Amino acid sequence: MLRIHFTGVDLARVRMAGRPDALWETILSFHRLRDRRDARLFGEWRTETRSRLNSETRMLGMLIPSRGYFPDFLTPVEGQYGWDVGLDALRGIRPERIRRELTLLGTRAGTGVSAGSPVTPRLREFMDGADRHLPRLLGELRGYHRAAVEPYWTHIQAQIEAERAARGRALLDGGADELLASLPPMLRWRAPVLECDYPVDRDVRLRGRGLLLQPSFFCRRTAVTLHDPELPPVLVYPAAAQLASAPAGGESARPEEQRQRTLGKLVGHTRSVVLRAIGDGATTSELARRAGVSLASASQHACVMREAGLVTTLRHGNAVLHTVTPLGAALLKGGAVAS
User: What DSSP element (H or E) covers 195?
Assistant: First the structure.
């Protein structure tokens, strides 16, 4: 069990990440690649990613175990600002921090499994020559990211935007208390403590620093946080899966001719109005009211637009919440949907 302890100041400083974190998604996707579970959601993604992986990933495999602790330095806070910014931050990590965290990895003290195990020779070699081996690690990360994450980035962004819209509604409806209570079921808000199913027993005290909530597409089953309590507090948690689940590749993995057929259904004034009516997010009933159509018609239009990759839908309480994907926003900006 993970317990995150809030003060009143911490509640005032809870915030949602503005976008998916490129490094967290990359590291967590490496877990999903080696995990045989969730085949419906990740099976096609695994097949496609493995077919594209030409680069070496041996070092990643050494630093990212299939479960348990992996070094905090792999996910610097700058990753929330984009892949290149995050990679630059990783490049600037001090060798002494790398050695300290690799020692923790080697002894597996962070997993609670077998603390006290000796550091392996390969890990010792990396620790002793961190300056020399870091460029190779960055190269492996870059190659893996291009194969496993970059082709699906639009889909990942759409999922995180939908999650932000749902949590933003909770925040507006009831403040930080309602936001924390609305998080996925593995996270339980029992004020002033947020509890989470976790592989080890741990308490995190925020001490007025607040908490960054980072939804993630590749995070599954349990949330993840940094091991070092002195680093800026972040909680990475699974974004809610959309109702019409698709492989991680989502729309970008569809044959182009299928995309064109689906987009062809969208040409027309009514769907243009409906897409614009979604705005920053709308339930089906809100969508019907804003667009001036029946509930059944709003639901049908949202379904077609979801199939075309223009809309993402997830459940929010007893309703469903529709949000516009980056593709949908680009179409609206260009006026491509109107007739």
Answer: strand 193-196
Residue 323 CA to residue 40 CA, distance in Å, equals 23
For 84-89, the CB contacts below 8 A with 24+ separation are 86/21, 86/22, 86/23, 87/23, 87/138, 87/141, 87/142
SS3 216: strand
Residue 256 pLDDT class (50, 70, 90 cuts)? very low
Residues 6+ apart with CB under 8 A from 212: 15, 16, 17, 77, 80, 232, 233, 234, 235
Nearest residue to 224 via CA among 181, 186, 182, 185: 186
What does DSSP say about strands 282-283 and 319-324: parallel, antiparallel, or unpaired? antiparallel
The pLDDT value recorded for residue 116 is 46
Residue holding tokens 């809030």?
6
Element (H, E) at 190: strand 187-190
CA dihedral over 100, 211, 64, 106, signed as positive or negative: positive
**What are the tokens at 127?**
């620790």
Tell me what the pLDDT averaged over the chain comes to. 83
75 closest CA partner among 225, 183, 187: 225
| Alpha carbon distance 167, 215 (integer Å) | 10
Quickly tell me which residue has 């962004």 as its tokens: 157
Closest by CA to 301, choosing from 319, 324, 329, is: 324
- Taking the C-alpha atoms of residue 190 and residue 207, their distance in angstroms, rounded to an integer, is 18
Distance CA 59, CA 69 (A): 16
Question: How many C-beta atoms lie closer than 10 Å to residue 175's C-beta?
Answer: 13
pLDDT band at 110 (very low <50, low <70, confident <90, very high): very low
Integer angstrom CA distances of residue 283 from 62, 163, 295, 297, 323: 45, 14, 10, 13, 9
